[in-house]
Write a structure and sequence with these properties.
3 strands, alpha+beta, rod-shaped, three-stranded antiparallel β-sheet
């Protein structure tokens, strides 16, 4: 009887520790995603500040984003970053975010200039 209660207590503590570590990992990954998205938005603001988004500028802009991500040490979390021209005021950004060793989450969004 005594060993059964110890086993249940140990099992309960292990479950709580597992849930806590899983939650910490989840919050950490969401923080990284927010940093990546902020870096992309800042890059667009800096690069296309005083001009329209032209289709021939998209490859240069993609290199610019990758350079900024490397500067912020965020490139290790990204796989297959793509920037697609939609029109002179809008681009689409998509990338695969590394959630685990073999697990990737696809993230994509459109960005439109206000002016």
């Amino acid at each position: 009887m005594l060993s059964t209660s110890r086993l249940l207590i140990s099992l309960g503590i292990s479950a709580i520790i597992y849930i806590l570590f899983d939650y910490i990992k989840y919050k950490y990954h969401n923080n990284i995603i927010n940093k990546i998205n902020a870096c992309v938005l800042q890059s667009i603001m800096m690069y296309f500040n005083d001009m329209d988004i032209e289709i021939e500028e998209v490859p240069k802009f993609n290199n610019f984003i990758n350079m900024r991500l490397r500067d912020n040490k965020l490139e290790e979390y990204i796989k297959d970053m793509k920037v697609k021209h939609i029109d002179s005021k809008k681009v689409s950004v998509s990338y695969d975010f590394k959630r685990g060793e073999d697990t990737y989450q696809n993230i994509s969004f459109d960005i439109r200039k206000n002016n």
